[in-house]
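Re: the 330-residue chain
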Amino acid sequence: MTTARRADRKRKPSTTNDLVVARRLLDAEAAALGELGRALDDRFGAAVELFAKVPGRVVVAGVGKSGHVARKIGSTLASTGTPALFVHPSEASHGDLGMVTPADAVLILSKSGESDELSDLASYCKRFSIPLVAMTGNGKSLLAQVADVVLELPDVREACPMGLAPTTSTTMMLALGDALAVALLERRGFSADHFRVFHPGGRLGRHLKKVSDLMRTGEEVPLSDASSNMKDVVLVMSAKNFGCAGIVEERDRLVGIITDGDLRRHMADDLLQRRARDIMTRDPRTIHPDALAAEAVGIMAGKITNLFVVDERRVVGILRLHDCLQAGVA
């Protein structure tokens, strides 16, 4: 057994020291992000402008830890409305350069800006006049010299004790990539509705479902005319099995609702001979088909179990709380 291993076995773990290390690192990375924010200048706007104008995609590349961050930035761009993909520089040198077209722009991440693996991709960009943005900690590097726009990271020491392991530098790269993605998102007017298209699966997809995705339509919707007698209304309520009926006038314009509770409150010998307009609750809560289903759940929770879906006061469907919960919207 080596001396180092024997020393490790004798050394007692210290959770207090672990917390000191963690807080020291987080403080260093937070300070680095502050430096990055203060260092941003017009070059950031130039990079956003460049990416916003390309008709193709943003191709993101990097090696080592920068490559891992580049892959995440490409994914974030793609999911927020900017077509993007990650290309590994080494694979690019062995055929994947064909994935990069003159309609694209390239974003290369490299702290040193001198990695040999990046040379073929950078040269390819210059040969075919493909816009190149460099994200680097060395504004005088070869990568920076050939780039059209340089996003230079502040000269901040890495947070590890040796000052070597990529920590503060990769945190700054990641944050700067997020800043690019969000700036492009806002330029494009990217909305929650667009986000839903790119995120149909998982919890996020469920929360971004629209009312129109879950509502019942057509013959399923329980509707009665305001002039109908209550006998007909009760038949509609029984047949449709929603526990309510929407009361409409010309062209399915919603004017009220009758629920099981309304029937109990108006129970009398002449109930079935009365008109729907005399029993209905006027101006019921409604929702638009383009609203998020989560918003509808917020309206219904603890109060009601159905919402009529209305577009310009015309009934286009009905949404059940049960259907929302079954779809995972809560």
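The chain has two domains: 3-190, 211-326.
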